Structure formats: structure tokens, C-alpha cells
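Posting for a labmate who doesn't have an account.
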Amino acid sequence: MLIAISSISVAFAGNSEADYEKELLESEGGQLATEIIDRLNTSVYRGNSNEQMVSEFIKKYFDELYVVEVKIANEMAKEESDRTLMDNYLEQKRQIFNRYWLQDDPQTVYYYYPISWSGTPSHDWSKVENVSIFETGDEVKPQYLMSYTYEGITYVFSLIYHNNELKIQDFFFKIS
């Protein structure tokens, strides 16, 4: 493409700048260049919107879990925790999990399914750093990886579209 655009530049070199731009845009090569630029801009926009979509999805997941995790931590900090209340909080975490995770592989789903409490919240979005988002570029079945650092540990979510909804498919962390 650069060769075609360069040769067009030489062809219009004798004209004024305004005439050059007009003729360039009206020429076949100029139209092609404009289409390429439009396509690149659309691709960048789509990439940026996909990046925003993925990070907003994970942020929402974190925010919902964090509210419940804080309740659990507060209850665990008491001298005597209310077991019924703790079970209720665990059920809330499971409901959040069910909304965000793809559940087509029982082994993977069981592995990440909330089954216990923790006295320390692990989904505080304000502690998320170094976010990177990658995509396959497949428009039919797009897949994404989102890596981030949380309290010094690197984590990666694998996300996929399933039934027109973004879902978490898997989760990885760096072994130190």
C-alpha cells in the first residue's frame, strides 16, 4: 500500500497542496488509501472499545464480589461469626459467579466455584495494576485475555463470548 500511495504523491507533485489533496482523494489510489485509513481507524476504535468492554466487565465482577467479601471479612472479624449469615454471603458469591462464568466445563467450573470464606477481600479493584488486554481478532467467536497485577501477583482471565454474552472461561496466576 505504501508504494501505491508514494507513486500517487509523485504523480500529483506539480500541483498546489489543495489541488493535490483533492485529486488524491478523488483518485482510485486515494480512495483506496482513504478506505484503508478508515478501516484502520475503525479497527483501533473497535480494539479500544473491546478493551474497555473487557475491563468494565471484570471491574463489575470485582466490584460485586468485593462488596460481599467485605461483609464476610467484617463478620469473620467478630468474636463469634453468624454461620447462617456467612452461608448467605457464600451463596451471594455463588450467584455472582454464576452470572460471570461460562459453565460448560464442570471441572473448570467446580475448581473456581466459591466454596469457602476468607477474612481478606481479594477483589478490590483499587489494588489492580498493570492491566493488559489481548484479543484473538476473531469476529465470529472473539476471545480475550486480561492480565493484571494484584498485590504483586500476576493474574490472567480468559474470556469468551457465549450466547452473545461475555463470560469468564478460565483463570490463571503466575507461580513465583
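Reply:
Got it, the C-alpha cells are right above this. The helical segments are 2-11, 17-26, 28-77, 83-100, 106-112.
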